[in-house]
């Protein structure tokens, strides 16, 4: 008979400690928010995890444990001495270490949550974001900034990046530095059009992605810019060039056709030449 029950009655903190102290070997099935996770124990240590597929990376396994340890709803079921055939020891995670780190993170997140908006809050770059290039931002900071488009919420960004703890911590830091703001807060302060500073910053990031050969990322960011600033013909032109680098000639042709009608800052001659080249390419690949 499996040992099972609701997490509300026996927290995962207590359950993990119990399994560690009794040096249990077996499979722990956990279901939180309807999502099943399997955690495999040997001698009271976690040797492998499965959420859909096996999680073989040690760091990813730890992050998974941290994300569920403070759950207050769900169910668990422990099957003593039952492990899948052929299961390998991917790692040996000590429960005490996991609980110590999870407790520290929970305390820190509690402090962050006091100032961090809800997951439904939509973020946008603030006018001060144009100064970001002079700041010592991390790769994680820039990744978060690249997803901020005035449409995505805090929760959306966490879902895209994963690692809720680190993502919340970086969002909190960016908001404290006044580089990000909640949409409603920004419009309360300034009820004019979206400031030009953030747009230039997004264009700079897209340019950096392109220089690094990350054309898909550049294309995604340029699409955001075009959605935020539909009258910016320069961004449309850059998007057309990025589509060409990705081999998406038909999409690039759609843009140049549109730009032929309203070139904006771009030279009509340059757009015409690009449109002609694209027409030729599309005929050749037919």
Overview of this protein structure:
The protein has 286 residues and is an alpha+beta fold. The protein has a domain at 3-110. The protein has helices at 12-21, 58-68, 95-113, 139-147, 154-161, 164-176, 183-189, 196-211, 215-228, 233-245, 249-261, 268-285; strands spanning 3-6, 26-32, 35-42, 45-51, 53-55, 75-80, 123-125, 180-182. Helix 11 (249-261) runs antiparallel to helix 12 (268-285).
Summary keywords:
286 residues, six-stranded antiparallel beta sheet, two-stranded antiparallel ribbon, 53% helix, 14% strand
Secondary-structure map:
Elements: E1 3-6, H1 12-21, E2 26-32, E3 35-42, E4 45-51, E5 53-55, H2 58-68, E6 75-80, H3 95-113, E7 123-125, H4 139-147, H5 154-161, H6 164-176, E8 180-182, H7 183-189, H8 196-211, H9 215-228, H10 233-245, H11 249-261, H12 268-285
Helix pairs in contact: 2-3, 5-6, 8-9, 9-10, 10-11, 11-12
User: What is the global morphology?
Assistant: elongated
Strand pairing plus helix content: what structural class?
A: alpha+beta
- Largest sheet: number of strands, sense, barrel closure: 6 strands, antiparallel
Contiguous uncertain segments of 5+ residues: 186-196
Distance between the termini: 65 Å
Number of strands: 8
Total DSSP helices: 12
- Report the radius of gyration as a whole number of Å: 25 Å
Fraction of residues in H or I helices: 40-55%
What sequence of helices (H) and strands (E) makes up the elements? EHEEEEHEHEHHHEHHHHHH
- The share of residues in extended strands comes to 5-15%
In order across it, which strands form the biggest sheet? 1-6-2-3-4-5
Mean pLDDT comes to: 82
């Amino acid at each position: 008979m499996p040992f099972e029950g609701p997490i509300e009655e026996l927290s995962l903190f207590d359950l993990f400690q119990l399994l560690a102290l009794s040096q249990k070997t077996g499979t722990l099935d956990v279901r939180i928010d309807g999502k099943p996770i399997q955690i495999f124990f040997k001698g009271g240590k976690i040797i492998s995890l499965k959420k859909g597929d096996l999680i073989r990376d040690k760091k990813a396994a730890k992050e998974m444990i941290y994300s569920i340890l403070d759950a207050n709803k769900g169910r668990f079921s422990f099957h003593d001495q039952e492990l899948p055939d052929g299961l390998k020891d991917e790692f040996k995670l000590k429960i005490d270490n996991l609980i110590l780190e999870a407790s520290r993170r929970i305390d820190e997140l509690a402090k962050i949550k006091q100032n961090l908006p809800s997951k439904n809050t939509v973020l946008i770059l603030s006018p001060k974001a144009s100064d970001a290039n002079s700041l010592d931002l991390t790769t994680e900071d820039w990744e978060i900034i690249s997803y901020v488009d005035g449409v995505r919420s805090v929760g959306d960004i966490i879902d895209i990046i994963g690692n809720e703890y680190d993502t919340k911590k970086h969002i909190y830091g960016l908001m404290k530095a006044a580089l990000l703001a909640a949409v409603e807060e920004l419009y309360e302060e300034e009820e004019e059009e979206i400031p030009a500073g953030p747009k230039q910053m997004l264009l700079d990031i897209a340019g950096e992605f392109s220089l690094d050969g990350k054309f898909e990322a550049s294309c995604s960011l340029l699409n955001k810019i075009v959605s935020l600033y539909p009258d910016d013909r320069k961004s449309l032109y850059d998007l057309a060039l990025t589509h060409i680098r990705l081999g998406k000639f038909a999409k690039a042709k759609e843009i140049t056709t549109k730009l032929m009608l309203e070139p904006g800052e771009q030279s009509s001659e340059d757009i015409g030449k690009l449109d002609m080249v694209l027409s030729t390419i599309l005929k050749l690949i037919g």
